[in-house]
Amino acid sequence: MSQSEQSVLKTFRKFYMSPGKMLCFTSVELDAKKSAFDSLVDKRYLMREKFAGAYSLTSRGYRRMQQFA
Prior knowledge:
β2 and β3 (54-57) form a beta hairpin. Strands 1-3-2 form a three-stranded antiparallel β-sheet. The chain starts with a helix and ends with a helix. α1 (3-14) crosses α4 (59-65). The chain is of the alpha+beta class and 69 residues long. It contains four helices and three strands, in the order αβααββα. It has a single domain, classed as Arc Repressor Mutant, subunit A (Orthogonal Bundle), CATH 1.10.10.
């Protein structure tokens, strides 16, 4: 898992996010880590929400997120 992917998951952990809860990112964050977000969606760790810049963790992503301090 890349450092950028880990950073994204750590952001979810920082805000105590659980599966299905939406977290919104700024356009700066999205632009800087676009490939990480895309990769995490492809791996089914994140799900894109209809709201622009919003993602939520899947159950699989939640379990993976728990591995990072």
